[in-house]
Amino acid sequence: MTVTESRPADQGSAAPATRTLTLIQAVTEALREELARDERVVVFGQDVGARGGVFLATAGLQAEFGERRVFDTPLSEASIVGVAVGMAVRGMRPVAEIQFADYMGPGFDQIVSQAAKIRYRSGGQFTAPLVIRTPSGGGVKGGHHHSQSPEAYYAHTPGLKVVMPSTPYDAKGLLKAAIRGSDPVIYFEPKRLYRASKGEVPTYDYTIELGRGAVRREGGDLTLIGYGGVMPDVEKAAQALSGEGVEAEVIDLRSLVPWDRDLVLGSVEKTGRAVLVSEAPRTANFMGEVAYVIQEALFDRLLAPVSQVAGFDTPYPYVQDKVYLPGANRIAAACVKALTY
C-alpha cells in the first residue's frame, strides 16, 4: 500500500503496536486524540453531544471534554457551517458534523462562498481551517434523503479539500491530517463501512497526507480505481478476476481534492486499461475528471477506452439499492469488457 505517513521520530524501526478497530471507532479515536492534543479543536453538530451523533461517532466525547468543547447545535446546517467558518477565521479548529451528506444543502452557500473563498478574497490574510464531517453514500436502507453521494459538488469548488476514506487506518490518519491542516476540508464518511470495515490501526500518533492514494492490490492487466464505500466490492471484483487469470491493480484514491494523479497515471501507463468505480450518479461524476486526465495524458498508451461503473441518474432507490450500487459483478463485467478490445 502506498502511504505517506507522519509519525513520531522515536519509533525507529521497531514494529509499532496495533489493534483492530472499525472505521467509526477510528473516527472517534481521531477526534478524541485531537481534542486532547489541541485546545483549539471543538466538535459540534446536531445531537453530537449527549447522544454522540446519530451513528455514535462522537459517543463519550462530551463527557470527557465538556460541553464547551463538544456540543449540540440547533437543526440548522447553515448556522453550523457559518459558526465553523467564524471560529476557524478566529484561530480555532472546528470540526462540524452534518448529520447526513444529504443535509448539506442549507449550508452550501456558507461552504462554497465563504469557507472555500476566504483565503483568496482576503489575499491570504485569513484562512478557514475547518473540517466538515458527514456520513455519505448508500447501502444502509436510508432511502433517497439519507443515501446520496454529493462529493462532486464540493470537488468542483476551488479552495475546498475533499476526502473519503475506506479503511479504519485511513479514516484516522486522514481525519487527523485534515484537522491539523490550513484549509477547509469536506470529510465524507461512507456509512455502510462504519462497522463493516475493520483493520489494524497503530497506537502511535500518525497522519496521512491528503492527496495520496493507496495501492490495495498490485496487478498488470488493468487498473481498477475507486474510493469510499465501493472499495470492498472493487476488491471482490479483483479477486474474482484473479481466479480467471486476470490480475487487476486496485487503487483507492482516498482523497478527491487533491487526488493522486501520479499514482493513477503510473498504474494505467503500466496496464493500458482503466475502470473507474464510484456510487455517485453517472452524469458529472467526479470519476469523469479522472477519466479525462487519463485519456489526456495516456491516449496513445491506452489499450481500451476508459470506462466507469457508477450509480444511475435517478434519486437513490430505497428498495433497489443493491441494483443501484456498483456491486462486484457489475465491476467485474466492466473489466471483462475492457479486456476484450
| Main beta-sheet annotation | 7 strands, mixed
Percent range for β-strand residues: 15-25%
CATH H level, superfamily name of the largest domain: Thiamin diphosphate (ThDP)-binding fold, Pyr/PP domains
CATH class of the largest domain equals Alpha Beta
Order of the strands making up the biggest sheet: 4-3-5-6-8-7-14
| CATH fold-type name of the largest domain | Rossmann fold
CATH architecture annotation name of the largest domain: 3-Layer(aba) Sandwich
**Helix and strand run:** EEHEHEHEHHEHEHEEEEEHEEHEHEHH
Coarse shape? globular
Number of strands: 16
> How would you classify the helix and strand content by structural class?
alpha/beta
Instruction: Give average pLDDT, whole number.
Output: 94
- Poorly predicted regions are none
Structural domains: how many: 2
Radius of gyration, in Å, reads 20 Å
What share of the residues lie within helices? Answer: 25-40%
Q: Output the number of helix runs.
A: 12
Brief rundown of the structure:
The chain is of the alpha/beta class. It contains twelve helices and 16 strands.
Q: Would you mind describing this structure in some detail?
A:
With 341 residues, the chain is α/β, with parallel strands linked by helices. The chain has two domains: 19-207, Thiamin diphosphate (ThDP)-binding fold, Pyr/PP domains (Rossmann fold); 214-339, Rossmann fold, CATH 3.40.50. It has helices spanning 23-37, 61-65, 77-89, 108-115, 118-121, 151-155, 168-180, 231-243, 261-271, 287-298, 321-324, 328-339; strands at residues 5-6, 18-22, 41-45, 70-72, 93-97, 131-136, 161-163, 185-190, 198-202, 207-208, 214-217, 222-226, 248-252, 255-257, 274-281, 307-311. The strands form four sheets. It has a seven-stranded mixed sheet, with helices on both faces. The protein has a five-stranded mixed sheet with strand order 11-13-12-15-16, with helices on both faces. Strands 1-10 form a two-stranded antiparallel ribbon. Helix 2 links the parallel strand 3 (41-45) and strand 4.
